[in-house]
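Input sequence (403 aa), recorded before submission:
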Amino acid sequence: MKILVLNAGSSSQKSCLYDINGDSLPASPLEPIWEAVIDWGMPPFGQMTVKANGVKQESKIDGSQKDKAIGQMLNSLIEGETQVLNNLGEINVVGHRVVHGGTDYSRATIIDEQVKETIARLIPLAPSHNPSHLQGIAAIERVLGNVPQVAVFDTAFHSQMPLAAAVYPIPYEWFTKGIRRYGFHGTSHKYCGERVAQLMGKPLESLRLITCHLGNGCSLAAIRDGISVNTTMGFTPLEGLMMGTRSGSIDPAILIFLMREYGWDSDRLNEMLNQQSGLKGITGISGDMRYVQKEQSSGNERAQLAFDMFIHRLRTGIGSMLASLGGLDGLVFTAGIGEHGVLVRQETCKDFDFIGLKLDPEKNRNIKGDGNIAASDSQVPVFVIHTEEDWAIATECWHLLKS
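Predicted structure, token format:
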């Protein structure tokens, strides 16, 4: 079964193609036979990178014409040195990561008109993501026609959160109308929990884990009994931790103040909170942690403040997840910052020695692949896991088509 996966983020479009043979899934993730990343950059400039057959190709794209760029990306499957298919009709199914499924979907589902309408209706709750998902779905329809498409929802893994964690302390009637905490990055949190359980040789249901998905978007999940019992993102991906360009949680009265005293409207508030805040808001330049750390090492005070704020809010969030678990069997770092942020992991973990959590500095610096970077006398293992969201999406597609 040839499965194409489209994983649209807030600033990129990642895609890959898996070729799964046989009647059962392998025990560990397969390597995709083709991979592509579109970094939308700052329109009209963007870049596409395609890897296949041992070849890596990079090209400039027009970031303002996303449909055309996605079509160009798909053509690399059947043309040039990155060709891995004779024709696009060989693709059996296309899986999409979809950030927000609301209360309508708690599991992977075949995409039809109703599913597309729901994704569109939920754009106000995930304005940086759901439009990109619809663009990807539409592009596949134009190029591949009636090939089955599957939506794998970020919200699904958090759908069993206890009501005490899911309901906001506002008039209850709003909960009945769908205003609740949904949680996001569920595919990543679920995969990382399962991978850690595999490495520890224990059932996921027996472990209490905190998974830290730290990228341009950041969230934590508290996993107990095999499900997410708490998480930092909420009604939208804006709640919770400080992120690349998103503020995370702030006093909502700030928004009321800006509306009353400065006449700000909803569009301006949305732009500030989702695109101009977080690391970018404090540095004034960039929301990329690599930029922050480079400037930090050069003595840039605002970069140092941005880093310190990021760590403070991350540690505070871990503390709240810990309280939801009543103990900890493993702390997990994943995604771009989580997997590569040596200093972030170091500074995050140093104040948790009171629960017996200690990092091994050498392991933390030199970790390759998935592994435990805790000191030998640490009572709590600390894992770095390469999140395999794409593989998790592919397996959902496989199960759905096989059933």
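Checked by second reader. The mean pLDDT is 91.
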